[in-house]
Design goal:
Layout (H helix, E strand, L loop, with lengths): L9 H29 L5 H33 L3 H18 L5 H8 L3
Length: about 110
């Protein structure tokens, strides 16, 4: 996103689109891959249940994020505050992931093993 203002022709914009799209696709699907790796010994139903819980947790962000950034754009006339908001939310999500217990502890809590 930081490179977008520096795309002055169609070729650079296409290249940015390919790179950004690849990164977005990987990050979107990475959660299910990590979940399957951590809980691979569980039944497929359990893995799909946990995947559904991940999506339920992410949905409010998908719904509210663009609205909040749009409001900040209307308020300030630029995307700087929206970018700062998005960066702060990503940092808070990183901090929250630091407190997630190890998969073995989670398996014991869920009664999987």
């Amino acid at each position: 996103i930081l490179a977008w203002p520096h795309c002055y022709d169609a070729t650079s914009l296409r290249l940015l689109t390919i790179i950004y799209g690849s990164c977005t696709t990987v990050s979107f699907n990475l959660g299910l891959v990590i979940l399957t790796n951590a809980f691979g010994s569980a039944s497929p139903t359990t893995i799909l249940h946990l995947s559904g819980l991940m999506n339920v947790i992410a949905t409010p962000g998908y719904l509210l994020g663009p609205s909040i950034v749009g409001y900040l754009y209307d308020l300030n006339g630029n995307y700087i505050s929206g970018s700062l908001f998005a960066g702060a939310v990503i940092f808070l999500s990183f901090v929250s992931v630091c407190f997630v217990p190890h998969p073995d502890v989670q398996k014991k809590r869920l009664g999987i093993e």
